[in-house]
Fold this protein.
Amino acid sequence: SMKDTWKAEALTEEEKKNILIKRARILAGEISAEEQRKEASQIVEFILAGERYGIEAIYVREIFPLKDLTPIPCTPSFVAGVINVRHRIVSVIDIKKFFNLPESGITELNKVIILETDDMEVGILADSITGMAGIDINSLQALLPGLTDIGTEYLKGIAEGPLVILDGEKILSDKKLVVSEEVE
């Protein structure tokens, strides 16, 4: 799948080898479940209006160039519109608006991060993708003051940087983020 080729490019031979060794150790039962949980999660990092964000790579199906974004009338302000990704209509969310973050910084939107679970997909706008990072999800700091309440439930926390880690699972389980294709 696209996701795997994209990830493969981002990993060096050394990293690939380490992952395989780790998998072998997990299979051999040498790494406890506890240790596995402590293991760093792979995070896709991106920039939006000068702020750094991340989302766990397991939710990212692909990074798609932003083109032909169609605004949809009568949708919440955080829905930037829809795009056609290989004959599927995907809602695209502006997370700055979604979290009511101040609209600061220059935005040169040119990427959509396509998130996916079994029964849902949604795109997130990004100015640029800065790469992959391993982050211990359990050591994230609590959220920044000043974020609205709506924001906190969709965020996992803040990593060094600061890097705001989004909660892919919550975002992908929220039906209001999906513009139904049957637009009235």
In short: The mean pLDDT is 79. The beta strands are 41-48, 51-56, 60-65, 79-85, 88-93, 111-117, 120-126, 128-135, 155-159, 163-166.
